[in-house]
């Protein structure tokens, strides 16, 4: 049984080598005799071989140098009396500048250890020159009558409108988004700054009036101190204090019980020449500070 298997194996190996020993005829060549740089050129490749062989034609992975592979068209195998015939047409192109370019393309028969290679005869093709003949009277570059001019030439700058428009639109979008997101905080911040600045201005002016009155009493100074106080409260609370009399102001105020005696004492100083007004003025200053702090707290937590 073992001897029979050995004889069968030797028979198969011998048959394969006998098949490989039979001739494989490969032909190849260009359809045209000239080509321009970059234009397609067609190359045919045919093979006749025993039908029991497995023949492989090159594909896009094969190097067709000095040509570049574009595509191929394969025709069905034809077999007659044990001989098979295969043919392929390759579409190639070249960017080389050699006047004459050659190409030979092989076919392969896969084997147990390696592949057998059958190569066609080399075929040549001529490159069509696209450069016109240089006139005989043309001078070399070194002999050209060139003129040198080092004078500065003003060149108008091109204004890049698309970039400006895109940048402006982007900036506008950023500003709008920033205002939508942080607008409330920004307005609150500047309102608080204005409240603090207005109170600082009032406090400075009112303190100056108090200092002058403490040095020398004058009804006009008392009237001016009251006017400064009314103007500040009018600005702080949006009420027309500067246009109201003492009686009208007390009708608007919720704490008229506290404010009434103070304003009456100041009226007495202004119109009745009462000189003891340091305490009433100090109370007005304290009321202004309290209302400022109340307004500031409302804005911060509003």
Overview of this protein structure:
By secondary structure, this protein is an alpha+beta fold. It has 2 domains: 20-127, Immunoglobulin-like; 192-300, no CATH class. The chain is built from 6 helices and 9 strands. It has helices at 2-21, 161-215, 219-237, 246-252, 256-271, 278-300; strands spanning 25-30, 34-35, 41-50, 67-80, 83-94, 100-103, 106-110, 115-119, 123-127. The protein has a 4-stranded antiparallel beta sheet, with no helix packed on it. β7 (106-110) and β8 (115-119) form a beta hairpin. α3 (219-237) runs antiparallel to α5 (256-271) and α3 packs parallel to α6. It is rod-shaped and about 145 Å long. Residues 11-15 and 17-21 have low confidence and may be disordered.
Give the overall pLDDT as a whole number. Answer: 83
Helical element count? 6
Strand line-up in the sheet with most strands: 1-3-5-4
Quote the beta fraction: 15-25%
Radius of gyration: 54 Å
Shape: rod-shaped
Report the biggest beta sheet as strand number plus sense, adding barrel if it closes.
Answer: 4 strands, antiparallel
Task: Kindly state the percentage of residues in helix.
Answer: 40-55%
Total separate domains: 2
Keywords:
Immunoglobulin-like; single chain; 21% strand; three-stranded mixed β-sheet; 302 residues; 6 helices; 2 domains
